[in-house]
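Suppose you are handed only these lines of text.
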Amino acid sequence: MFRLSVEEYAERVADLPVRPSAVQVEQLQWAVHRVAAEDLRSPVDLPLFRNSQMDGFAARSADVAGAPVELPVVAEIPAGAVEPRPLAHGGVARIMTGAPLPDGADCVIPVEDTTDAGDGRVRIERGRGIGEYVRNRGSDVHSEEVLVPAGTLLEPRHLAALAAAGVAEVPVLGHLSVPIITTGAELLPPGEPLTPGRIYDANRVALETGLAVNGIGVGLRRRTSDDPSEFAAAFEEVHRASLVITSGGVSKGAYEVVRDVLEPRGVEFGSVAMQPGGPQGIGVVDGTPVLCFPGNPVSTQVSFAVFARPLLRRVAGLPPIEADAAELAHAVSSVPGRRQFLRGLRTGGIVEIVGGPGSHLVAAMARANVLVDVPAETTELAAGETVRVLPL
Ligand code: AMP
Ligand code: MG
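From them, the structure of the protein bound to adenosine monophosphate can be written out as follows.
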C-alpha cells in the first residue's frame, strides 16, 4: 500500500521496464511518424549530377562576359537528357531546369535575360559569372553523409529526402504493443441495447485511441466482469506485451477485481495524492509491466495523460508532450492536499475550467483540450493567474 505524490509515482512509472521495441524495416510510405532506428546515410550525392537551376542557356561565362552578345544555339538539353556533348567554344546550349550541364559550360543564362535573334542564334542581354544558376553535384548532401539522424521522428520532408536519394526502405523502431483490459460487471460495448443497471464502456476506446494517436501499437483488448477468474483469464491472454493497462477495480471496496487478482502476483496498489486518478496500481508480472488505472472515465484519461503517455512516448523514441503555461479566465478554488488536474479549455493563452470536479463527467471532459495542473498546496487561484496546462 503506497501513498505517493504525483512526482514520486511518476518516477516509479518511468522506472517500469517497458521493453524497447525491435527494429522493423518499413517502406517509406509506412514510415511516417515512426522513429529512425539508426543514422540514415545518403547512398549518393545530391544533387546527383551538376544541373541547371533555370530554363535558359548553358554557357561559358567568358563567352557572355561582353553581353549583350549574340551566340549560336548549338544544342538542346531537356531534363532527363543523358550525357550531353561538351559545349563547343563560342556557343550556348538551350537547357531546361534540372537538365545536366554539358562539360565546358560553367553558368546558365536565364531565359528571361535572352531574346531569339533568329537563324538559330540567341541574344544574351546580361552575362553571368562562374557557377550562377548551376546546382553542383553533392551541394545538398554528399554520399555517405547522414541524411536523417537516428531518433528522428520521420515526417514527410525526411521521407522525401530519402526518396530523392533513392532509399526505398528505412529501419524504424518497432511498435510497442499495449493491451487493454477494462473491467466492470456493469460495462456494455457501445452499440449494444442498454439494459437496466448497465453503462457503456468509455475507457476501452479512450485508451486504444489514446495509444493510437501517440503512435503506440494497441495490443489485444479485453472487457471483463468483476469475476476474478474471468479477469485472470483475460490477463493471462494479453500479458506478454510491452505494457498492460487495466481500468477499474483498484479501490478498496468489494469486487475490486484487478486488485484481488494482481496484488498476489506482485502488483502494488495504493493512492497518489491527485484528483482525479487517486487510486493506482503498478507492478511487473512475469516480466511485463502493468499499470492499473481507476475506472471512472475521467480518472482513466487523466492517468493516461499524466503517467502512461510520457512513459510510452519516451520508450517509443517520441518527443514528450510538454506542459506549458496559460492564464486563468476566472478564479478557481481547489481542495488542499491533492494535486488537481482540472479540465480546461484553452483558447490562445487563456484557459477556462469546464465542468465540475466529478471524475464521471465525460461530456465536460470532451469539451476540454488541456488539464489544468493545480498544485497540492494551492487552495485559491485568482483570475489572471498563470497555471501549468498539459495538452490532452
Ligand atoms: P471502479 O474503478 O471499477 O470502481 O469504477 C469506478 C466508476 O467508474 C464506476 O462508477 C464504474 O461504473 C465506472 N467505470 C468503470 N469502468 C468504466 C468504463 N470502462 N467505462 C465507463 N465507466 C466505467
Ligand atoms: Mg469496477
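What can we learn from it? Helices lie at 6-14, 61-64, 156-164, 203-213, 228-238, 257-262, 297-315, 362-367. Residues 20 and 114 are 61 Å apart (CA to CA).
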